[in-house]
Design a protein that fits this description.
The complex is a heterotrimer of chains A (about 190), B (about 200) and C (about 300). Chain A has helices at about 1-15, 25-30, 35-65, 75-95, 95-110, 115-125, 130-160, 170-185. Chain A has about 190 residues and is mainly α. In chain C, a hairpin with a 2-residue loop joins strand 1 (about 145) and strand 2 (about 150). Chain C is globular and about 65 Å long. Classes of the chains: A mainly alpha (about 190), B mainly alpha (about 200), C mainly alpha (about 300). Chains in contact: A-B, A-C, B-C. Chains A and B meet through helix 2, helix 4, helix 6 and helix 8 of A and helix 2, helix 4 and helix 8 of B.
């Protein structure tokens, strides 16, 4: 049990998807404009990563590796991800057409999000157990969501700052991410 | 940009300078930040990504009439994923040490936003020749920047560049090789590019 | 933003009183003097050199930046001096000078000036620089020399389960970072800040209360009873007092609202104890402060006061 708690903390904070492994940087820059989009993306990533992870792990371990087809992992996992997103969108559409219109572009783009694919590939290639992989995926996504929300808060704060002109826009956000990464480094001693 | 005025030289110019994928369009930042811990890794990643980009641009452009509009991202996924896997196998066979060094970011090229962006914005609406050169231009621009980024990070963190020692050991700032250092150095490079571009913001 | 416009959009708080910024900074610098003087006394002339390098680097870099930006001379508000002093007080007394200079440069240029200067930084510059240095130069930042020999600071002794002399901790005759050893000096400085009404009691109070409660509960579970000496030792060692009174209370990076400050203080206190009891002890206060800085926007959102006249 403690091993799993450790795994959760490691995945969410110490090996944070975006601040340590720089997996989802593009999303961090683009989708943290305000709390709303941060939460939307965070929840989407959580659902998609968790579902994809649960499905891809057995396929990766028992199907592809057994028949020595691990090279196909990338494509197969991507297609599974796409299927999950498609299912999710179909579900949302059933519930509310308006929400569907709103969420469709966001969810489709998460297929191209390296955070999702990165973590599910990593789980299979390193060879973690099913439970461990799932914990890593879920808490990795939670950590990503937390980072997005913190970033949204800071962005709101620095919106009217006198940032030097060349740094306005993406550069100052990258510096912010750097400072957040330094802050998160404090968690490394916990394990 | 109307197709009449667009030509392969324009594509090259845009790709390398005016619309450089890393410093102007700010795409594909994930692998950029992760693998540029040394100049050699940056260069290798740049070349690998460029190859996949050119191939996928070519094929998406050739097949653009066949890819359905609403499900086009699925088409991109299949094509880009296929070329990533093929290139990955090639790399595994002939350059296994580079494959080792770049690790998980080789397969992650399948979700590299540069490739998707170029597919979406360019390859589906232009002919094959222009698309190839769009890929070449973007590829060169990308490779150039991430090699420079890799070189800077390598010098700061290890004192060497491409393996040649420039600064005596013991005077290195190791954070340059970690995520925070990467973020800051990339931010500075983009800021310099912004300054050169005359204040054109994203 | 647009320098030609006479309209200035800014984030709250909207009351700015530039005339007294330098007065406030001067008071903070004065309040740091007891700890600074004791640090030099305890660790020798090299410590003074470190302090001067930090302050000097901060001031010179801010001066260059001001000159380059054709702005009014912000170094006059002494905030660069204060940042340099606080950073120096957080460094081990034998750190190589060039490392201290790199840290000071990071604090001033990247954490403060790049975000728009005083009042606009998102994180405490000195705390951020110390954490930056801990990542970059881990070995030297963890190397503590006292009276000529390599020694373990009280914080590490506690971590390993040993006991420390509370009186020595109080008086400061121990190893550690330059400004964090002498509780007496720090408390004198804090009292000065309270008298001059520079800091609000809430943040340090709830910081320390949270720490006391946390360590108390911890000792209840692990040692079978509330260990007062353990609590006392933790409060007096490491950067606890330095952080509580001088760093967490930074106006810019702490919440504005009163309930917000209580939450903030308690949050940081709990984090510090988590890091100290379950993780690396060195630098725990600075990392905790940085993480606190990150959640300030969220805290302020929760504790937002009702707008005048709005139905809520």
């Amino acid at each position: 049990m403690t091993k799993l708690i450790y795994a959760a903390i490691i995945s969410a904070f110490i090996n944070n998807l975006v601040l340590t492994r720089t997996f989802g940087t593009n999303s961090l820059i683009r989708d943290s404009r305000d709390y709303g989009s941060a939460i939307r993306l965070g929840v989407s990533i959580l659902i998609i990563t968790s579902l994809s992870s649960v499905i891809t792990w057995p396929i990766g371990r028992y199907l592809l590796e057994k028949f020595n087809l691990s090279a196909l992992e990338t494509i197969v996992f991507l297609l599974i991800e796409a299927a999950v997103v498609w299912l999710l969108l179909a579900l949302v559409r059933k519930i509310s057409e308006k929400k569907y219109q709103q969420l469709s572009p966001l969810l489709t783009l998460t297929i191209a999000n390296s955070a999702v694919l990165g973590i599910i590939l990593n789980n299979v290639s390193v060879g973690y157990s099913f439970v461990r992989s799932t914990v890593f995926s879920i808490f990795g996504a939670i950590g990503f969501g937390i980072t997005l929300i913190l970033m949204a808060g800071i962005r709101e704060r620095i919106r009217y700052n006198d940032v030097p002109q060349p740094f306005e826009g993406v550069p100052i956000l990258l510096v912010t991410a750097a400072l957040m990464a330094i802050a998160f480094y404090g968690f490394t001693g916990l394990i | 940009m109307s197709e009449k005025k667009d030509n392969i030289f324009r594509r090259l110019y845009y790709g390398v300078l005016k619309e450089n994928p890393t410093v102007v369009l700010c795409l594909g930042l994930c692998p950029t930040l992760a693998v540029t811990t040394s100049a050699k890794n940056g260069l290798a990643m740049g070349i690998f990504t460029s190859v996949v980009l050119i191939l996928s641009n070519l094929f998406i452009s050739l097949l653009r009439k066949l890819i359905p509009q609403t499900e086009r991202i699925l088409g991109f996924v299949v094509i880009i994923g296929t070329f990533t896997t093929l290139s990955q196998l090639f790399l595994q066979a002939y350059f296994p040490d580079i494959n080792e060094a770049l690790g998980i970011f080789i397969p992650l090229t399948a979700v590299n936003t540069v490739i998707y962006d170029r597919a979406e914005k360019y390859a589906v609406s232009h002919n094959a020749a222009l698309s190839i050169f769009d890929g070449i231009g973007m590829g060169i621009g990308y490779t150039l920047i991430i090699t420079i980024l890799g070189a800077i990070r390598e010098i700061l963190a290890m004192g060497t560049v491409f393996g040649y020692r420039l600064i005596p050991a013991g005077y290195s700032i190791s954070i340059a090789a970690l995520a925070p250092g990467g973020f800051i150095i990339l931010a500075c490079i983009i800021a310099i590019a912004n300054k050169i571009n005359g204040g054109r913001r994203l | 933003m647009n320098e030609n416009s006479n309209l200035r959009i800014s984030f709250y708080p909207h009351i700015r009183d530039k005339a007294s910024t330098s007065r406030i900074m001067l008071d903070v610098a004065i309040s740091l003097l007891p700890a600074t003087i004791f640090g030099v006394f305890n660790f020798g002339w090299y410590a003074l050199l470190l302090i001067l390098v930090c302050v000097g680097t901060c001031v010179i870099l801010e001066l260059i930046w001001d000159l380059g930006n054709h702005k009014r001379m912000t170094i006059r508000d002494l905030s660069a001096v204060v940042t340099g002093m606080i950073l120096a007080l957080n460094l081990p007394p034998t750190l190589p000078l060039w490392m201290a200079a790199v840290g000071a440069a990071f604090a001033i240029v990247i954490v403060k000036l790049l975000f728009g200067g005083l009042g606009q930084n998102i994180m405490n510059p000195a705390a951020c620089a110390k954490c930056f240095l801990m990542i970059c130069f881990a070995t030297r930042m963890n190397m503590f020399v006292y009276q000529g020999v390599l020694s373990t600071p009280p914080i590490e002794v506690l971590r390993a389960g040993g006991t420390v002399d509370l009186l020595q901790l109080f008086l400061g005759n121990t190893s550690g970072c330059i400004g964090e050893t002498c509780a007496v000096a720090l408390i004198i400085g804090a009292i000065y800040l309270f008298i001059r009404r520079i800091i609000d009691f809430r943040i340090p109070l709830f910081f320390l209360i949270a720490a006391v409660i946390y360590i108390g509960i911890y000792s209840l579970f692990t040692r079978g009873g509330i260990d007062m000496t353990l609590i006392g030792a933790h409060l007096l060692s490491g950067g606890m007092l330095l952080g509580a009174f001088f760093m967490a209370t930074d106006y810019v990076t702490s919440p504005v609202s009163r309930p917000g400050r209580i939450i903030y203080g308690a949050f940081i206190g709990a984090l510090v104890c988590t890091f100290r009891l379950f993780g690396t002890a060195n630098g725990s206060v600075c990392f905790a402060i940085l993480l606190g800085n990150l959640v300030v926007p969220l805290i302020e959102r929760i504790t937002r006061r009702k707008s005048f006249g709005k139905e809520e």
